[in-house]
Amino acid sequence: MPSIKNKEVAQVVAQAYCSNGHNKTQAMVTAGYSHKYADTGAGQKFVFGNVRTIAAIESIEADTAQRTELTIDFIQAEHKRLAKICEDKGDFVNATRNLEGAAKTIGAYRDGSAGAEDVTRLLTDADRQALIYAAKLLTKPKPTIKLHTA
Q: What are phi and psi of 145, to 5 degrees?
C-alpha cells in the first residue's frame, strides 16, 4: 500500500482527485490504495487529512483557477443565477439542474458511501433551502385540467 508520507503519493492523489470531479475513493484507487481501504471514511480522513495532500490539492486548484479564471465561487454563483432565471420562466427542470450543478461544485454528489456526512457541513443555509425548494418543486403534483363535456 502506498504511503501518504511520500510526497509523490500525495501529489498523485491530489492530481487524481482534482481531475476526477473530487471523487476521493477513485483518487485513492488511482494512487494505488485498495478499493476497500479507499472506500472507508477512516482511510479517506487519513489520506485527505494529510498536510501534503491538502497542500497539493490547494496548489492544483489555485493553478487551475488562475489558468481558467474559474473558481468554485464563480461557478456556484453562475449556477444560482441561471437557476433563478429558469425559475422565473417556470422552467423548474433546468432550475433544478442548475441547483444540482451548484451542489456538485462542492462535491455534494461524491462518494455517497463514505464522507456523506461532510456534505451537509459544506452547504450554506441558503444552498440547503434552495435544494429543499427544488426537491419540493419536483415532487409537487402537477395540476390537471378537467374538461366538462356535455
A: -105, 125
| Domains of the chain: residue spans and CATH | 7-68 (1.10.10), 72-139 (1.20.58)
Residue appearing with cell numbers 481501504: 37
CA 2, 117, 113 angle in degrees (round to 5)? 55
CA distance 81 to 105: 15
15-22 — which CB contacts under 8 Å span 24+ positions?
A: 15/56, 15/60, 17/48, 17/57, 18/57, 18/60, 18/61, 18/64, 21/104, 21/110, 22/107, 22/110
Tens-of-pLDDT digits for all 150 residues of the chain? 788 888 899 999 999 998 887 889 999 999 999 989 998 888 899 999 999 999 999 999 888 877 777 777 888 888 889 989 988 998 888 888 888 888 877 776 655 444 444 444 555 667 767 766 766 666 666 666 666 666
pTM over 0.70: no
Give how far Cα 138 sits from Cα of 89, 119, 145, Å: 16, 21, 19
Q: Which three cell numbers stand for residue 139?
A: 415532487
